[in-house]
Amino acid sequence: MINKSTIASLLFTLAIVVPGYAQDISKIKNQESLKKAYAGKFLIGTADDLTRISDLEAASIKQHYNIITPENCMKPQPMHPEEDTYNFETTDAMVDWCEKNGIAVWGHTLGWHSQSPAWFFQDNSPEAQAKAKEEAEKEDSDEQRPNRQGFGGFGGFGGNSGPQASKEVILERLKDHIMTVAGRYKGRIVGWDVFNESIADGGDGTTENLRNYSWYTAVGPEVLTYAFKWAHEAAPDAQLYYNDYNIEQGAVENTGKHASSLLLLKRLIDEGAPITGVGIQGHWHLDSNLEDVEKAIENYAALGLRVAITELDVTATGDNSGAFGVNQGDRTIPEENYQMQAEVYRKLFEIFKRHSDVIDRVTFWGLSDTRSWRRGQDALLFDGELNAKPAFHAIIEESKN
Ligand code: GLA
In which element (H, E) is residue 203 found? Predict the structure, then answer.
C-alpha cells in the first residue's frame, strides 16, 4: 500500500539519486570531446557490442566517438555458429542505435583464424563422418589418448581436427558468409576488417609468414584475395581493410612482421584485391617503439593504402603487449606510470596528426579501464568510473599544438 511514508522515502531517494546521476552525466559533458578535438583529421572510435551499457557509458560514447567497432558480435563464431544459423540481433540493434545517434559502424571481422567455428572446414559427407566416428571410438579406447582437439588457445582457433572438406567447399562457405554478412549491412557499415591477423609471430620478414593452420592451409594464401573480392561484391561502397597486431614491428629496419606485412599487401594489390587500407591494431605498452609506428604508416601509405589505428590501448603496467586476466600480474601500478602512459599517448597522437592525410580513424579498444580486454592493466583513457586520466588530457592538449 502506498502511504505517506512510502512517498516520503521515495522522494528522499530521488533527491539523493537524481543529483548524483545528473552530476555524473555532467561530468562526461564537461570533458572536452575527443571527436571534436580531432575533427577534420580522423575519426575517433571505440569498441563495444552495446549490449549492456550504462547511461554513463552511453553519454561517454556520444560525447567522444564518431565510429564504433563491435568488440565481438560480428566475429564468425558469435555471428555464424552453425552453417544454417546466423545471429544478427546484437549487430542489428547496435547498428540501429548508432544510426539514431549519428555514429558510424566498422565491421569486425569477416575472416579470422580465431573465434571461428570448425564447421567452415569440416567434411560433412556421411562417409567422412562415419570414418571420423570410427577413429574417435578407437582413440577413446586407446590408453594413451591423443589430444584430438589439435587447436586451442585464446578464443578458440578456426581449425578442424576431423575430416576436412575440399578447398572448393570451404571457399564456398566463406563466400556465403561474406556475401550474407557484408550484404546485410551494405550501406550501413562503412568498412570491414576483411581478414584479421593472418601473419604469424616470430618470422624474419623474408616471407609473408602466414599462419600454418586454419584458412591458410585449408585454402591457401589466395583466401585473402577471394575474401576481398567477395566483400567488395557484397558491399561495393565499403572500405576494405587488412587488420593485424605488431605489424609495425621492424618497420624502421624493414624486417620481421612489418616486412612480412609489406609482402602480403603487395601480393594482394598485385592479385587485384580491392583493398582500401591497413589496420594497425595498436595494442601497445610503455616501451613500444614509436619510430616503427611512424615508419609503418609511411610504408603503407607508399603502397597507396589508407591506414587506421584499429584497437588502440597502451598498458600502464610495463612492456606486456597481450591480455592479462583480472588480478594477474602485479596489480600495483605506480602513479608515475600514468604520466608515462600519457606521454606515450601524446607522442602517438603527434604522429597520427602528422599523417592525418592518410589516417582515416583511430579507434580505442574499449570504453574504460574496466571495459577493456586488458582489464587490470589500465590501458585506456578513462578509469572505471569514466573519469578522464592523464592520457586523456595529453591527447586533448596534443590536438591544440
Ligand atoms: C584481437 C582481435 C579483437 C579482440 C582482441 C582482444 O585484437 O582483433 O577482436 O579479440 O584481440 O579483445
Answer: none
> Which residue lies with its CA nearest to atom 5 of ligand 1?
373
* Domain CATH for 113: 3.20.20.80
How would you classify the pairing of strands 306-314 and 283-284?
Answer: parallel
Tens of pLDDT, residues 161-212: 778 999 999 999 999 999 999 999 999 999 999 999 999 999 999 999 999 9
Q: What residue numbers bound the domain in which 106 lies?
A: 66-233
Residue 400 Cα to ligand 1 midpoint, Å, equals 31
Instruction: Determine the residue of 106, 311, 315, 372 to mutate for testing ligand 1's pocket, defined as the one with the most ligand atoms within 8 A of the Cβ atom.
Output: 311
Identity of the amino acid at 90: T
- Rounded distance, CA 127 to CA 230, Å? 31
pLDDT score of 2 more than 60: no
Positions marked active-site: 197, 311
Model pTM score: 0.90
| Coil vs helix vs strand at 304 | coil
* 393 belongs to a structural domain: no
**61 located within any domain:** no
Asked, for residue 388, whether it belongs to a domain, the answer is: no
Amino acid at 193: D
Ligand 1 centre and the CA of 114: distance in Å?
9
Whether 151 is in a domain gets the answer yes
Q: In the numeric block, which cell numbers belong to residue 210?
A: 602466414
Cβ(99)–Cβ(66) under 8 Å? no
Calpha distance 349→391 (Å, rounded): 11
List ligand 1's pocket residues with C-beta within 6 A.
108, 196, 245, 281, 311, 373
Check residue 23 and report its DSSP letter: H
How many domains is the chain built from? 1
CB–CB of 86/79 below 8 Å? yes
